[in-house]
Amino acid sequence: MISETIQKQRDFFLTQRSKDISFRKKALKRLQKEIIAQEDAICDALYADFKKPRFETMATETQLVLAEIKQALKHIDLWSRPQKVTGTLSNWPSSDYIYKEPYGTVLIIAPWNYPFQLAIAPLVGAIASGNTAVIKPSELTVNTSKIVSGIIKTVFYPGHVTVVEGGVEISRQLLLQQWDYIFFTGSAKVGQIVYESAAKYLTPVTLELGGKNPCIVDASATVKLTAKRIVWGKFLNAGQTCLAPDYVLVHKKIKDKLVAMLKKYIILSYGESIEKSPDFARMVGPHHYQRLKSMLEGEKILFGGQSNDRDNYISPTLIDQPKMDSKLMEGEIFGPILPIISYETEEELDRYLMHYGKPLATYVFSNTKSFQRKMVKKYSFGGGAINDTVIQIANKKLPFGGVGQSGLGAYHGKASFDLFSHQKAIIKKANWLDAPLRYPPYNLPFWFIKKIKYLF
Ligand code: NAD
Question: Do 2-209+404-423 and 214-396 fold alike per CATH?
């Protein structure tokens, strides 16, 4: 069944239809129209999956994808045009180009935390570049998986784009097949499996993974705004955001003030009875709920700490000075629990920032320009923000992706188009001149060969 699906995709790709620019545009327009028509149903699906607030679904899922489509439609002609580059003396007379060639059939594996956006945003790049695609949504968000499948069926020819629904076993079977490109979003652990599977056929991959994203708050930071922006970025989607701050490293001098402000902004955002707030989501399922609940054991709770087994609710929680070898600090938290750790020296910062490898994001809160510069230059991470959190995702001109343990490759806007396109180098050689210099028998003096570098 899976191999038949892929064969259909390959056959469709071979018809060359998906490469036609007007075909790509029409497909994107149909997708755009269907998402607009189904926006309410998409919001309902995400609410049914983990009580994701409607505002958050629109802002971080549907509208973000619609922005990607709009951008692709606007620039597709320009992006897909062969790019002329200057020729070299050695090849003169010639015209030199980079052609953007679709890879072929692409597999997109999506996670559950932004289950609509992370299935469809990569698809926009894949089809804008002329590929055919198979999407595997997450099995943990069944309602969204269904609606994604329905939209794709309505919009696309089955050979062009198809959804294969299912869990880990289906994902494994998909990974056994040969693909022309694999785009994976999810955990580093599964990312390794994907990378290994891709190696068998030397398939190019993008891995959009997570990490333990630090928030560094130095003594010069504007505490009120810092707290407000950390609370927003951390508790959006109930902390289940790959870009969310994972823990805060705050200068000792302002720690108490920051904690007081964090508490204040949690209450201002979600009210005194957070469980009743329509603006706060739930953990996606019992497994993640229990995982997070167990992280609280033995920790010093500064705020929150409530949970409710009935609907996988964990309240926004602040933890004081967890030990580095605690469950909380072992790996990515991926939920509404925020450790607050104080530091005084740069060596103390290093101890944390060097320990967790290269995260997807790092946030620096400071009014000292030299400190901001130093943090950005010294530590390696996917991307980030100075004096804010998460918002780097909102600029389509900024490539979005990790580095090292947090991923491989970057997308959004033009970066998506380029990611799903092979850059084919082509030289069109003129026939009116054929300099004899390169052909044997080699009669040129060696001093001349040494000058050849100037011809490239
Ligand atoms: P996950 O790795 O468990 O699952 C992702 C996908 O892989 C799902 O579709 C799942 O069915 C499939 N899968 C799971 N186990 C598999 C296996 N053994 N073999 C083959 N396929 C398998 O991730 P998740 O829990 O859905 O998502 C959370 C993770 O994703 C977090 O680590 C988060 O940081 C990361 N993430 C990263 C980004 C990003 O853009 N960088 C965005 C969102 C989430």
Answer: no
